[in-house]
Amino acid sequence: MTLDWDGISHITKVDPAKPLPADISALEGTDLVIVGGSDDVTEANTLEAIRAIAETYPSIPVFQEPYSSDHVSRETIEAADFVAVPAVYNGDRDHFVGKHVDLFTEVGRAPEDLLGAGLPIVGDLIASKGVDAIADLTASLIGEGYVVQHLESTAAVTSGVDTTYTSDQVAGAALATETFYGFPIFYVEYSGTYGGPEDVEAAARYLEETTLLYGGGIDSREKATEILEAGADAIVVGDCFHDDPETFRETIPE
Ligand code: 1GP
Q: Are 58 and 33 in contact (CB under 8 A)?
């Protein structure tokens, strides 16, 4: 699948460890769904959430965003349109480079070496489909350059973030993403709290090819509008979808 970012301004982050609202019709107005969380996520609950959304709204693209390779399987790769893998600039080494090299080491091994390797289900996929599956798999993986700005969030604790970036540093990370690292997505992450427009304004100055996402604490039309006007290509709304679907509808741009 190729993804056209034009027209994507509202993204819903669905936490697979939380129950979906009884009525998920609020998703009708969202442009893309990311399935991922930082606590109690498993391959099974990820797959269940992806399938529930894809079956109800087949035209909405769905990303899986794992924080561990244990969450990725042949089924999740096939059920999701893309697997988005965070690279956390202000995280520990494991979360900027370590986990990715481990993942691609598994992906790049010859199929026969993958049987019984650390990513058994991915290995099984490659063994069953042949070397072409390596290309299929890498084509479905998207890197996301992340800056995690809320130290109290599970995302920060999980990825070893112990200091936030100044807006100048956010701008620097954005410039590096655009011109050096080449991740297709730059993500300003305030998970659980509203960070305001400053970091988005700083990052937007340098991003042309890169898609700029902001997530964290959006629970009103005013906040959604403020972030989009600051230069984000899309806002990501998470908690509000699970906690208050009616208010969530207000975050969707008209
Ligand atoms: C979390 O950026 C998302 O990864 C959304 O944040 O849950 O605070 O809306 P909220």
A: no
Report whether 32 contacts 50 (CB < 8 A).
Answer: no
Please calculate the CA angle 184-145-192 and round it to the nearest 5 degrees.
120
Strand partners, 212: 186
pLDDT band for 128, please (50, 70, 90 cuts). low
pLDDT at position 150 over 50: yes
Q: Ligand 1, from 18, 150, 190, 220: best to mutate by most atoms within 8 Å of Cβ?
A: 190
Please, which pLDDT band fits residue 208 given cuts at 50, 70 and 90? very high
Strand residues in the chain grouped as ranges (E): 10-14, 32-35, 62-64, 82-88, 141-148, 185-189, 211-215, 234-237
Residues 238 and 76: their CA atoms lie apart, in Å, by 20
Tell me the DSSP string of 7-64. Answer: T--EEEEE-TTSPPPS--GGGGG-SEEEE--SSS--HHHHHHHHHHHHHH-TTS-EEE
Helices 99-108/132-140 angle, 10° precision = 150
Residue type present at position 134: I
Contact 181, 86 (CB under 8 A): no
Residue nearest atom 1 in ligand 1 by C-alpha distance: 191
The pLDDT value given to residue 119: 53
- What does pLDDT average to over the chain? 90
Of 34, 189, 194, 213, the residue with max ligand 1 atoms within 8 A of its CB, to mutate for a pocket test, comes to 189
